[in-house]
Amino acid sequence: MISTDFAPNESWDDAILSLKLLFQPWKWMRGNDIEQVKRKLLSKLLITNNKYRISLFLSGRSALYFLLKSLNLPKGSEVLVQAFTCEAVVLPIVELGMKPIYVDIEADTYSMDYRFLTSKPGNKLTKVLILQHTFGLTPKYRNKILNLTKERKLIVIEDLAHGFNKSIFSPNNQYLISNNFFLLSFGRSKTLSSVFGGAIATPQSTINNLPMPSTWFIFQCLLYKPLTMLIKSTYDIYLGKILHKVLNKLNLLIPEITKKEKKGIYDRLFNKAYPNALAILLLHQLNKFEQIKQQRAKICQIYNQHFPNFILPSSKPASIPKQQSSNFSLIRYPLLTERRDKILVKVNKQNVYLGKWYDEVVAPKDLDQSRVEYEQGSCPNAEKVCKNIINLPTNITEEQAKRVLKILNDVK
Ligand SMILES: Cc1ncc(COP(=O)(O)O)c(C=O)c1O
Question: What global pTM score does this model have?
Fold first, then answer.
């Protein structure tokens, strides 16, 4: 099985660590590993100026919720957010009585397009801008957007949930000492996975004193890694397929998005502290992060050589800016094609599962769209990309990448 979505970050060493932790419940709640994670994250973000603190949460969405809450903005405040995003970004905004204002994207880095941003007049109620680094690409218009936020005195949250290019944190980066916040996620589909988890980097203050998740929740998180590894490694001989179905039926595979969230309602289940057990899983991933990044970069290069312009034949051109395409490590590799459905059916038959981030302006597709306040037709670029995008996996071996390309080539 080759999959972009299914447990892309897990390997047997993660599974074994998780399995051991299942038998060490005294390590689950509080412990020193949480502080170690904070220190490691700051060094990964290259933040060495002592101006930032890390606060950890049970998910990226709850990290965003508490960050927005801590700003004490008046009800009805507007948050500028790009179209082509997911419920995790929008539901906390709506839950806090704020209004998401959608800005259309450009198709080079799938991020907010400055030109559409300037066409939205400054409004007294507009207080925050969330700048998403989609797939880990630095937004094409990042500098211009950050300058505009300074002019308009907006609070900026850079959403680094998908990853980021280290250069944004170069030591001379003036934004590090301004009123900028950074959002991280350690969900199962992100570049670092502790199944659930999120963080914010804030200037000075931290947010804490949240209750711990239940032991049942932590137990389910710890089960996730060994179970998904079992499924992945036996999928091609059918056992994994059956196992997947059975475990889902028994509710033993904890879902990434809850039923409540699919109804478009923010789930306070995630308004919890980050437990030590997940910090241990995250530390393990942090320790091998450079190696995984290099592997992802290698796979991206293989794809890049195959699709020089990030497209499949018969699709509209899209390209990654040159400076980002040489040494980059994307969480998933985006391609635009008008033959998406045909391709997905064809590859699925060979146990290859490609991703569709995002197939809706506010993903996932089965989310109750009436709750997210998006007006159809208002961001046409994002809508078009949603119809054509597929994502290739990057955390795989070179042989697997070549197999993916071969299968794609064979789609007539
Ligand atoms: C762009 C973006 N930001 C933030 C998040 C929040 O992540 P989490 O799943 O940890 O709540 C996600 C999750 O998918 C995301 O895609």
Answer: 0.94
